[in-house]
């Protein structure tokens, strides 16, 4: 599904990723853990194509095709979705307008409004969004939990094949985390791969990873199964 080949990445002349390599097969769930400042969120931005980051060398291969030169929107249309740590607020654009735009873009045609409304309403109920959700501007005045749940609604509308969860547990209480993870697990199938970026193993109790990677100094220093996450929780990052 995704192969990162010897990525070297800088921002403002500072090296962030150092010969970073990772391979995620179809249907696999990978988690990347590490302390602040090691490049975890940079990695998600680079996969998604954030132009702030300079990819000096290496390649990003998605479903057998290099996407290193692709724009963010083209990567999204090819099936990559990033649930951001800090979702943006868009004043003046309602959630209904926004979701209608991304669904029509995904389908390449205008979806009938009744069909669209019915689909969104079902997801709104699943994720316990407020009654006035569709009329409100995107993320404006939303709590941290509402913003994260809104990301998952957008994800399900776009039907991605690779889902990147950047600190999805940030700002969520336990009940909201369970709700978000349930929806992700319900969506997940053997054709969908997930990359989870997190500091803490709590989210990995609800979305079980096949592999856990410890990241240090812009690279992967250790790889294991889900037990590695609990080893890190017990010992901390300094002992790894």
What is the alpha-carbon Rg in Å? 18 Å
The CATH C-level name is Alpha Beta
What distance separates the N and C termini? 29 Å
What's the SSE pattern?
Answer: EEEHEEHEEHHEHEHEEEH
* Arrangement of strands in the largest sheet: 6-9-10-3-11-12
Helical coverage, percent range: 25-40%
Q: How many helices?
A: 7
- Summarize model confidence as the mean pLDDT: 88
How much β-strand is present in the residues?
25-35%
Estimated structural class: alpha/beta
Poorly predicted residue ranges? none
Number of domains as seen in the coordinates: 1
Question: Tell me, what's the shape?
Answer: globular
Taking the sheet with the most strands, its summary is: 6 strands, mixed
The name of the CATH topology is Rossmann fold
- How many β strands by DSSP? 12
CATH architecture: 3-Layer(aba) Sandwich
Can you offer a commentary on this structure?
The protein has 240 residues and is of the alpha/beta class. β1 and β2 form a beta hairpin. The chain has one domain: P-loop containing nucleotide triphosphate hydrolases (Rossmann fold, 3-Layer(aba) Sandwich), CATH 3.40.50.300. The radius of gyration is 18 Å and the shape is globular. α3 packs across α4 and α5 packs parallel to α6. Helix content is 34%, strand content 30%.
Secondary structure elements and their pairing?
Blueprint: E1 2-11, E2 14-24, E3 29-33, H1 40-48, E4 54-62, E5 65-66, H2 72-78, E6 80-83, E7 90-94, H3 95-107, H4 113-126, E8 137-138, H5 144-158, E9 162-166, H6 174-187, E10 193-198, E11 211-216, E12 219-224, H7 227-235
Parallel strand pairs: 3-10, 3-11, 6-9, 9-10
Antiparallel strand pairs: 1-2, 1-4, 4-5, 7-8, 11-12
Helix pairs in contact: 3-4, 5-6
């Amino acid at each position: 599904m995704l192969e990162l080949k010897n990525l070297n990445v800088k921002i403002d002349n500072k090296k962030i990723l150092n010969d970073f390599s990772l391979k995620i097969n179809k249907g696999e769930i990978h988690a990347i853990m590490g302390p602040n400042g090691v490049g975890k969120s940079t990695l998600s931005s680079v996969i998604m194509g954030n132009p702030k980051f300079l990819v000096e060398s290496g390649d990003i291969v998605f479903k057998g095709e290099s996407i290193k030169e692709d724009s963010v929107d083209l990567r999204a249309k090819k099936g990559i979705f990033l649930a951001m740590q800090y979702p943006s607020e868009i004043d003046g654009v309602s959630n209904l307008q926004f979701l209608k735009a991304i669904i029509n873009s995904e389908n390449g045609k205008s979806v009938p409004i009744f069909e669209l409304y019915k689909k969104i309403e079902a997801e709104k109920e699943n994720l316990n969004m407020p009654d006035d959700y569709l009329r409100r501007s995107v993320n404006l005045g939303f709590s941290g939990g509402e913003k994260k749940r809104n990301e998952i609604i957008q994800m399900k509308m776009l039907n991605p094949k690779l889902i990147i969860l950047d600190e999805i547990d940030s700002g969520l209480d336990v009940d909201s985390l369970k709700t978000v993870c349930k929806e992700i697990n319900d969506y997940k199938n053997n054709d969908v791969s997930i990359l989870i970026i997190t500091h803490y193993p709590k989210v990995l109790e609800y979305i079980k990873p096949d592999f856990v990677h410890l990241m240090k100094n812009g690279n992967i220093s250790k790889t294991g199964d889900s037990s590695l996450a609990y080893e890190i929780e017990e010992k901390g990052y300094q002992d790894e």
